[in-house]
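Standup notes
- HV: blocked on the assembly model, inputs below
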Amino acid sequence: MKGPRHYPGFAAMTVGCLFILYAPLLVITIYSFNGSTSITTWGGFSLRWYAEVFTGPEAGRFGAAAWNSITIALIAAVLSTAIATAAAVAMLRGGAFKGKSATFALINLPLMVPEIVTAVATLIFFSVIGLTPGYLTILIAHITFCIPFAYLPIAARLQGIEATYEQAARDLYATRGQAFRLILLPLLAPGVISGALLAFIISLDDFIITNFVKGAGMETLPTAIFGSVKQGIKPNIMAISTLMLAVSVIFVTLSYLINKRGSVPPTT
Amino acid sequence: MAGMPPKLPETLGESHGYRPIIAPLLAPTWGMIGIFLLLPVILMAVYSVLTKEFRGGVDWSFSLAAYDQFFITRGLFGDEQPQIEWTYIAIFWRSIWQAGLATLVCLIVGFPTAWFIATRPAATRSLWLFAITTPYWVNLLIRTVSLKFLIRDNGPLNEGLMGLGLIDAPIALVNTNGAVMLGLFYSYLPFMVLPIYAAAERYNFALSEAAADLYAPRWVVLREIVLPLMRPGLIAGCILVFVPSLGAFLAPDLLGGAKSFMIGSLIEEQFKGSMGNWPFGAAVAMILMTLVLIALLFYARTATAAREGAK
């Protein structure tokens, strides 16, 4: 199998690439189980830092931050997915209409504008309209930047669904709502779920924008971790990081599996 | 109305019946992104030409002071001949250079990786892609902290290298430009691999075979045929890495020292505490956005050129 498409060294480069991507994550995972109080020496396997996360002196602070992060990510994921689904149906099932390319640009705007610029602009906007930075401002910002991430898998999925199914339903006197709810939505479900999962992860991941619009005293997990890391990497931070890492990997794996199962064309 | 025949599907045309409700379907998107991103960006442009007030506020009167502060210096007391202010231009220059270098390294590593994945059997391909993209979905802050933990002076990397006897003293990586570059590379590598992979997947491998049949060495095939045909994918990858690297905050803040101060940190500083200067911060953000826009326009132009060239 040594055809002209094979280049020596490319396989090694790929393995090296994966090594670089995973090595830091593996190292921090291993060290989060370190029994020693020093982060440099290995003191045997232990779950003490995980216990510290939930019962230690900082447990209250991180608990509140985790609650904020998770509730914001949940609400932002649900709302941005609903908004993105409506937009995808209009964009891909609405035919040609005035302002279509402008709408397309608008949906992609959160991906085009650098994060730090979004953060600055949002902070200025909330300050001008007099909305006090806090939970609500974080939530609004998160819903906004999650829309394109939810939109991408939904639109990709919708593109692959032929309109004939809905047309058949309409032929058989289904209303527009019924055709959507009973025909299109079930076919679209893998894309919708995948979009919601990605939006959830993107919201949970955000540091820069949250850091600008959160206001004093309000923390999400990334901003709380950032605050702690400024004074050095402590073992309990590694335990929290490993927990968040696990959550991300579980969500992405779910999204991957759902997409894979859903990628069988619904024509059969 | 009961006796009226139902509308025939043909009359629904391409819109499949959603045409009458396009506006309500799109209203939430326009409402959220329009009000909470487009409007704020416009407001930020306005803010950059307002007068600074003490304690971070602004006075609603027109002033070019922020841009003046960025580009021009008049000495410590403001009474000297106006000269070009190099401080901020230097920060931009360093950011462009750092982001450019990170992009180049991503390209050198990303192209072989994407090519290798695209030439795998279809069954294992999605698994390879999954392995490459998964780290991207892990929290960027956690990834950056993990990298810092790994490469710090008495971290596992240095300990390991010293244990193997490869080095005698720890390599000081943290707080250097090299560490920032590594951080940017690590943060955005998947952005490089994915578009190149998409281009490689569409590549007609028969072209490589034809060239090989005519005795072209494989590296000549790569240079003369593969790379030119995959140019749009390569450029897309470079833009996707370069743009977020340019405005990055976490990698330079956590991995770099005072010498690797980048645009992101400069902007952040203007909005923190009483030392801040909102109009100046807005002006720096505007200049950053202009650079990004230029990069995106460049990409759009090459993409269009490639599409027309393919005709």
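- HV (later): unblocked. The two ends of chain B are 53 Å apart (CA to CA). Chain B touches chain A through 95 residues (CB under 8 Å).
- Next: hand off to the docking folks.
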